[in-house]
Write a structure and sequence with these properties.
This protein is α+β, with helices and mostly antiparallel strands. The protein contains three helices and six strands. The N and C termini lie far apart (43 Å).
Length: 144
């Protein structure tokens, strides 16, 4: 039998780090993003192959950061829907509502992305993200 015991201090720490991680991504701060991840982290972005390990993950986030300065976030609201802790592992499920405005002009784009993060407790008791998967609620461009 597996007994799941969620400790509020762990939930609070994961919530804080999740918010910092999201803010770091939105700011294009690659080094701060990487500080939230395990060295063997895996990203599972939509419509792309996985990025596995810190160097592939760094490269993926650097490509994203290279485009962050071309947009303005007019909305970026993170809603943490669920956090479950089971020993040294945890998961969080969240929704991120974003609206971005291209700095070069044109229409704004709104989306709600859903994400699952898998967390691993580190030897010092802190939490880091080992897996990140997300996708959009919007239909694919040109599709249904």
């Amino acid at each position: 039998m597996i007994v799941i015991r969620t400790v509020q201090a762990d939930v609070d720490a994961i919530e804080r780090i999740h918010r910092e991680y999201t803010a770091s991504i939105n700011a294009g701060n690659v080094e701060q993003v990487l500080a939230s991840l395990t060295t063997d982290a895996i990203l599972l972005p939509p419509n792309e192959p996985p990025a596995a390990g810190l160097e592939e993950v760094r490269s993926w986030f650097q490509r994203l950061a290279d485009h962050i300065d071309q947009i303005t976030f007019t909305e970026a609201t993170l809603i943490l829907d669920e956090i479950v802790v089971a020993g040294d592992w945890a998961f969080s499920r969240a929704t991120l509502h974003v609206t971005i405005q291209p700095k070069a002009g044109g229409p704004s784009v709104s989306d709600a992305t859903k994400t699952i993060l898998i967390w691993q407790r580190q030897p010092n008791g802190s939490w880091k993200i080992s897996h990140d998967i997300w996708n959009s609620n919007n239909p694919p461009p040109g599709g249904q």
